[in-house]
UniProtKB/TrEMBL annotation:
It comes from the Eukaryota. Residues 1-69 are annotated as: Disordered. Residues 14-26 have a biased composition (Basic residues). Residues 27-41, 55-68 have a biased composition (Basic and acidic residues). Residues 1-13, 42-54 have a biased composition (Polar residues). This is Uncharacterized protein.
Amino acid sequence: MSTPINNTAASGSTKKRNNFRNRRRNNKESELSTDGARNDTRNSLGKSNASAQRRPNDSRRRNGKDSKVTVYVNPNELDQANLKVRQAQIDQCITMLGSDSFKLFKKGKNSTSYGFMLRNRKILGVANLKFIITVPLNYPLSPIKLSRQEQTKEDIVQISDQLNILVNNFNNKSKGFIQNDKTPILSQINFFIQDADLLSQKNYKKLDLLKGQFYSQFEKLAS
């Protein structure tokens, strides 16, 4: 005689098996999801590293350390009329001062420099002083700049501080020449020679201001 099957027990056993299968399925899906997330993370890190290798200076550019950009003057964009004025004034200096006293020193992308020597002419009691006059490519829109050539003669070394003051004061004055009356280069050089003693004074700016006020009052009285 066969033993009857208990439906309740069979049903409970079936439920246990189903629950076991579901747990295994969920575990596998969880593992797959975790592996996928890991792969995504690796891919993301790989792309980030590759990007960093391609652009090693990006952080420096953002920090501004390498943000300095040199802008060059394009000769094709310059006013041809100003270029003619510039060249005419340079030629005038060469003609009047002589090619030995005013000659090409260096050509740059934004300017041209000329060696300038005062032969047989004393400034601050010293003869044959050498200077460099730099003429910007966009002159007369920008002023010329005067600088010293290094000289080791003892009498020149002794007046080194005065020469530095002289050069700085002239360069400040040169800005005014351009802004106000477009004084030619040769006239600026003549001013430099004639007023060298005054330009070498530390209080030159104050003296020049008083001089300007005097001439202004004189012109008012004359008119």
